[in-house]
Amino acid sequence: MASPHRIFTETELVLASHNAGKLREISALFKGRPFQVTSAADHEVQEPEETEDSFIGNAVLKARHTVDATGKPAIADDSGLVVPALNGAPGIYSARWAGPDRDFIMAMQKVNSSLAATGGADRRAYFICVLALAWPDGHHEVFEGRVNGELVWPPRGDRGFGYDPMFVARGYDLTFGEIDPQKKLDIGHRADAFAKLVAACFP
Ligand code: IMP
What we know:
This protein has 5 helices and 6 strands. It is of the alpha/beta class. The chain binds inosinic acid (IMP).
């Protein structure tokens, strides 16, 4: 049976992000491939406001915005922490819960106190990463990666970012703030989504 996915055959792929870390990770992923990886900043494209109400919606919005501005295929990601006992919060608002100062101690405290208010029996959570690859003709492909785990308190470790210090992946004892960063990359939500993307569109 033919693949239901579109294979990438273009000469340039634009990463719809201004985040140097994301650009580095994605460039590494495509090392040795016969196309150039550039960024939205290289094309002087601003990041759009994330106005959709889902990870998929925001990932597609970001990719499409860059495609429309450059006329070239683009890839974008949207990620966050999802806590089922909090009806999915902070979810797409993961970055926004940290406020304009990007205060993740405050954001983690908010997650923990919201959980305590539910009784705190269910501390399960997952990180999610949605990747959207969009083409100038309107076609797009979407891939979702997850890592399941649970939330601990107090936060531990300073090797990660965001909500990492309060997240322990299933089967591990160390938080994502304590674990070897390479290990986190290997088992994380981004690696999961990237693996699905590469298998489908960059075989
Ligand atoms: P994005 O840049 O719109 O995808 O925002 C993602 C937000 O989700 C980040 O600011 C973090 O708060 C959170 N997040 C996503 N991935 C991770 C992770 O691997 N560790 C910790 N927090 C994460």
